[in-house]
Amino acid sequence: MRVPPLVTGEPQVLSPLEVPDWDRQTDAFRSAGVFHQTAWVRTLSETYGIRPAFLAWFDAGRLVAVLPMMECRGLLGGRTGVSLPFTDSCSPLHLENGPTGPYWAVDAALAAARRSGWQFVELRSGDARLRSRASTSFLGHELDLSPGRQSLFERCAPSVRRAVRRAGTEGLKLDFAHGAAAVEDYYHLHCLTRKRHGLPPQPWRFFLSLARNLVDGRTGFVARARLGSRIVAAAVFLTNGRRAIYKYGASLQEFQHLRANNLVMWESIVRLTETGHLSLDLGRTSFGNEGLRRFKRGWGATETEIFCCRLRAADGAVLPMQDRSSGWHTSLFRRMPVSLLKLLGSALYRFQT
What we know:
By secondary structure, this protein is α+β, with helices and mostly antiparallel strands. 33% of the residues lie in helices and 27% in strands.
C-alpha cells in the first residue's frame, strides 16, 4: 500500500467555531475526544473570553493533523498559547501523512507562539516523548469498559465492591439528568467540595455554558444520588462517540459514610457500558493525592502519566509549573465562606489555565 507523502509547511491557524463541519472532520481521528470539538471550545470561549487558535494541517482539503491551542491572557497581561486551558490532557491529532518528528507538536506550538506574540506555550499530553520537556506531571486513569458489567464489577477492588453494595442498602436513589437545573444541583455540591479542598470554585457562568453546550443528554449527563429529597453526591460526565470522561465529582461530607460517591460512579459505569461506550477517562490526579488515586485505581483503571510542559517561546526553555491543588493557599481558602470563594473564582479563573 502506498503511504501518502508527509505534509510539511506552516499550519493554518483557525477557530473550530468558524468551521461548519469541524466535528465531523475530527471524528476521522481515532484518538479524538470531546476536548477537540466545538462544544468544549465554545464553553471556554463563552465563559472566559479565550480565543481559539487551533493549528491545522490539510492535505488536498483533508484535515490530517490538529494541535488544539487557545490564547490565554495572564493577570499581568502576558499571553500564553495553551493546549488546552482547563483541560486535563489534550493530545494532538495526527494521521499517517501529517507532520512528523518526535517533537513536531512542540516545534509547531513554539513557531506559532513566535508568530502570534505569545510569551509562553503550555502543552498537556500523555505522550511519553514529552517527558524530557515536561515541567511537571500528573497521573491519568482510564477504564476499559469493553468487558461488560459483570466483569467490570469483578475487577473492582474488594473495598470498592463492598462500598457499592453498602450504598445499595442505604436508601439512596440515583438518577441521570441533563440541562441547567441538573448542573445547578451539581454546582451546589461542587462549591462545598472545593471549599473542603481549599480551592475556589469555577464561576457559575462556566457551568451554565457547560450545561448549554455539553450536558444536554447527547454529549453529557449529571448523575445524582439522593437521600430522601436531598442530593448527597453528584458527578458530571462528558461523552463523545464511544469515549467518556468523568469531569467533575462532588458530595456532602456528612454523608460520606453512605458511600454515595461509589454508587454514582458504579451506576454511571453501567449506564456507559449499556450505551455502547468503550472507555472512561477518570481525569488527572496529583501524585500527592493518594486518596483520589486509590479511588480511581479501585475501579480497575489503568494508570498512566500526563506530562505538562510550560515553555518560553523565545528559546523553548522548559519552565517550572506549580500544582495549585496544594500549598499554603489551600489553608487560607478553607477558612473563607463559600460566597467569598465564588467571588474569587469568578474574578481569578479567567487568568488561570
